Amino acid sequence: xxxxxxxxxxxxxxxxxxxxxxxxxxxxxxxxxxxxxxxxxxxxxxxxxxxxxxxxxxxxxxxxxxxxxxxxxxxxxxxxxxxxxxxxxxxxxxxxxxxxxxxxxxxxxxxxxxxxxxxxxxxxxxxxxxxxxxxxxxxxxxxxxxxxxxxxxxxxxxxxxxxxxxxxxxxxxxxxxxxxxxxxxxxxxxxxxxxxxxxxxxxxxxxxxxxxxxxxxxxxxxxxxxxxxxxxxxxxxxxxxxxxxxxxxxxxxxxxxxxxxxxxxxxxxxxxxxxxxxxxxxxxxxxxxxxxxxxxxxxxxxxxxxxxxxxxxxxxxxxxxxxxxxxxxxxxxxxxxxxxxxxxxxxxxxxxxxxxxxxxxxxxxxxxxxxxxxxxxxxxxxxxxxxxxxxxxxxxxxxxxxxxxxxxxxxxxxxxxxxxxxxxxxxxxxxxxxxxxxxxxxxxxxxxxxxxxxxxxxxxxxxxxxxxxxxxxxxxxxxxxxxxxxxxxxxxxxxxxxxxxxxxxxxxxxxxxxxxxxxxxxxxxxxxxxxxxxxxxxxxxxxxxxxxxxxxxxxxxxxxxxxxxxxxxxxxxxxxxxxxxxxxxxxxxxxxxxxxxxxxxxxxxxxxxxxxxxxxxxxxxxxxxxxxxxxxxxxxxxx
Length: 639
What we know:
The protein is mainly beta and 639 residues long. It starts with a helix and ends with a helix. The relative contact order is 0.09.
């Protein structure tokens, strides 16, 4: 479907004629050579960004760029605003919410494990979808178009090479400019000791007959980028097509990480004197750049493009704990964050949710400060992706073991949270009810040596005998964990009684001692089966590092019996024949095939059978764990 012959031919000729480094057709990240030494470059500086054809150097004059009206920046988000509508993709559902009529419409539904990025362009929604299973050919991505009302669903391209492996959790972001669809995949890596920024983008031109044809990078905005300049490797920067639509110019960075504005047609440029290096993030609207840190004591500020001055925010918090993100609006910006409670440091919950409105002059207005609300697992882009401000409401997703809920919070008159929509996390028409119990202990042994324990238990409401049998199995594993922990504590105390100087040979200055946890979560559920994931962690104070692993328990919901891979996929020999190539492709070293049949590593998903591998099993500790999903279709093809 894709033909790179012309680009490869052109690249070959140009390599012969020139010493310049050239990019391929965009199918994979280009091979970029290190930049020549120049003032301001370090080993962490991005290398020159190369292209399919030699580029003209930038004009030396400092171009004066026109002011731009404020606009709403939803670049790369899974929540996007369009007039009075809120479009959102989450957990396999692309929905549209009409804030005026309160009507919610399900536009597109797929497996909850699928990764989907979308953009709004004219009267259509364009989206790129990646399945939630591994493959042997790495071509599980497809490109779609449909009307904003969910009608006229059309497949534009399939069999697209994946942006990355499923393990990396990375999909293309999508945007459109001048009838060219950009599937954007910024990458970075070290080459010959130099940190490089590059693209592995794909590009499709929308034809008059409604089809899409792949084109090479030289015919896109990225093909106009001068040498020694690169895209800004930051998910909060506007993409090239987005910036061109709203601003009429691009944001780029040079090898010293300095931010520029660039007119791609004439080559005019303007240095903003602002570095993209460091911990700050950026959000744009009109003449203003909102700069905010990941963490630390830095106060957010506004950078004025017109005169290149900074304005610190009046009344902004100096110490932000987590979850900091900003949203553009017609009036200025909103930003929200988690702040540590002033009267709490270790007690739970530690945080309170804080939401501010930021005016163009830098003044702030605290809209929400609620100690009963804070965001868990919302660091960085997770919160930015799955929340937004529309009108006078703040929208976000809230999760529990069995459901996802779209929530909203009034910013003009703070009242109780409103539930906009609720849907099941798993494909079960009759989901089981789950009960959660938490325990946290810290047993002091001597001095600063202690044994810390964290335990999260799940149980099913016992509506059937099968539920009772499942709970019995879960109770046994909780009891085993608690028993082992108590035995460790008694063993340490006994050792200390026998040898009071036992701890003197160890340096406990770095840690408070032992750390053990078991966190159980619901992994999958349909009408026939239910699966639990048991995440273990253990750390001994004299160890180089902690160790973690996961055990999976899959049950038959009708009988309560624990199920194995063979119960679903047939005899062992057939399973090994199908599964082995998928694991061998990911593994860093050889392994015994029989480990693939271990009942504790087996689970299910909407896309396939999953196998979990702890550190050291098929890869080194630094590589982390592996979760490999073999598509159901692989077993159907074998049959």
